Amino acid sequence: MINEETICPKCKGNKLIKRGILKTENKGNRQRFGCKNCNHRFIIDEPFKRMRNHEQIITQCMDLYYSGMSFRKIADHLQRFFPKGVHHSTIYRWIIKYVPMMENFTDKQKLKDVKSLQGDEVEYHRRKYHNRKGVDRNWFVDIIDTKSRYIVSSDYSTTRDLKSMTKTWSRAKRKVGDSVKYISTDGLYIYDKTLKSTFGLRTRNQRAVKKSPVIHKIIKSTSKTFNYKIERFHNSLRERTKVMRGFHGRVSSAQTIMKGYEIYYNWVREHQGLNGLTPSQIAIPDVQIQNKNKWIELIQRGD
After folding, report:
1. What are phi and psi of 215, to 5 degrees?
2. For residues 102 and 302, is the Cβ–Cβ distance under 8 A?
3. How many CB atoms lie within 10 A of CB 51?
4. Domains and CATH numbers, the chain
5. pLDDT at residue 263, as a whole number
6. Which ranges of 156-278 does DSSP label H, i.e. alpha helix?
7. Nearest 5°: phi and psi at 19?
8. Chain segment 73-90, per-residue pLDDT in tens
């Protein structure tokens, strides 16, 4: 039976019929469809079109990578089960190709009734490009919904200046709207200016503070309650990135890899603190992933 949501990629019509099976060497048998309106024949795997490997292998590699395995170890793993195997650099290119597709979908989702946000930044070293010696100090800035533990916004940046911080917090503002009442951060001086331009924070005097749409809670790092939920996420992130031995290459590459981990944490990885649910199931209950292979559905929705 043909899914009612399936449409012709050429004329966007939905009057479709099955037109045989296409046999492929690596992807197995693929159902071919035909459109009654324009006679166009196609296969429903557009995001994976012209890929030599099956989408199950591609998404399995992505899941193994964000679960903690390195590119080379994944390649060794595949070599044991598939005769032709996959080169480790190919797995890297799959990450770079498909993470932006998923981001097209995940970045458009808006959260409802978010009352409290936590923001923080983590320092990461990136090896210099073109074989230059030394490392550059970079930063991973992230904002989390304290109730669902959903990463509302994140960015991998070379600085922590007003421009880069405002970019990350503006994205969070677009997703949560005006429902936020409390924002917790550390004592970094740039937060006051950033929250003023994004969430309308007022701090000049007692009267202004009372009329402020949000309350900014500055938590000292020595406190026992120092943003513990966002720190829990950082611990998971460090556990994953420690095997990378630092990023190497362009900033855009590091940004894509870190964005992929955000998607994995929000939409794929089941959280013990949420009774086995993903943060997206709590934060965005109206938008759920039905496919057991969540990577495939995320890619298809973002294509």
Report:
1. -110, 125
2. yes
3. 15
4. 1-44 (2.20.25), 116-249 (3.30.420.10)
5. 96
6. 162-176, 190-199, 206-211, 228-241, 251-263
7. -130, 65
8. 999 998 888 777 889 999
